[in-house]
Amino acid sequence: MADDDLEALDALEKEAKEFDKDAEINRILQAFKLDAYAVLDLQPGVPESDIKIQYRKKSLLIHPDKTTNPSAPDAFDRLKKAQTELTDEKTRLRLDEAIADARALLMRERKLNVDSPEVRSDAFKRDWRDKTKFVLIENEARRRKQMKAQLAEEGRAQRKEDDELDARKRKREHDVAWEDTRDGRISSWRDFQKGSSDKKKKKKTKPLG
Predict the structure, then answer these.
(1) Helices (H) and strands (E) in the chain, counts
(2) Angle between the 122-180 and 89-109 helix axes, to the nearest 10 degrees?
(3) Which are the contacts of 101, defined by CB distance < 8 A and separation ≥ 6?
(4) What is the reported pLDDT for 95?
(5) What is the pLDDT of residues 56-106, one digit of tens each?
C-alpha cells in the first residue's frame, strides 16, 4: 500500500475516533443527570464491577486530554459524578428505590401486574424511563425543600445564639463600666455628704449683735 494511502487511512481512523468521542460526549451531556445509570449508559441493577469497567472505558474515551472537544471537561465531570454515586451504597440505594417506585407507579396507573405482557415491551421500558425522570425530579425537589427548611432553621438558631452572645457581651461591658466608675461614684457621694454637712454648720452659726 502506498504511503499516501496509509496517510489517508490514518486520517480516516483518526476522524472516526474523534466522531466516536464527540458522539459519546453529546450522549453524556444529553443524558438525564439525576439518573447515574443513564449517564454511564448502564441498566439498573448491574454489579459494581460492571460500573467500574464502564466508567474506565468511557473516561478514557472522552478524557479532556485526549480530545479537543470543548465540552469534554463537563462531560467528564458528569461521568465521574455518576460513577461516584453508583459506587456509594446509600446513594445507589436511593436511585434504585426511585426507579422501582417509577415502575410501580406506571403499573398502577395502567392497572398492570408483573405477568402482564405489556410490562416486557419496549414501549413500557421507554415510559418507565420517563416516569423515572418524574420521580427523580420530585425527589430532588423534596430534598431541596427539606434542605432549605433545615438551613432556615439553622439560621434562626444561629441568630438566636448570636443575639444571646451579644446580650452577654453587653452585660459584661456594662458590669465592667460600672465597676470602673465605682471610685468616682463613691468620691462624688462623699463630696455630696461633705457639702451637706458644711451647709448644716453654716445654718447653725448665728450672727453677733
Answers:
(1) 7, 0
(2) 130
(3) 135
(4) 96
(5) 999 999 999 999 999 999 999 999 999 999 999 999 999 999 999 999 999
Q: What is the C-alpha separation between 67 and 22, in angstroms, rounded?
A: 9
| pLDDT(192) > 70 | no
Of 90, 123, 98, nearest to 38 by C-alpha is: 98
CA distances from 149 to 94, 152, 159, 189 (A): 21, 5, 15, 57
Long-range contacts of 89-93 (CB under 8 A, 24+ apart): 91/36, 92/36
C-alpha cell recorded at residue 190? 462623699
Length of the chain as a residue count:
209
Residues 6+ apart with CB under 8 A from 79: 28, 39, 40, 55, 58, 59, 62
pLDDT at 122: 93
Q: What torsion, rounded to 10 degrees, do the Cα atoms 159, 164, 166, 169 define?
A: -160
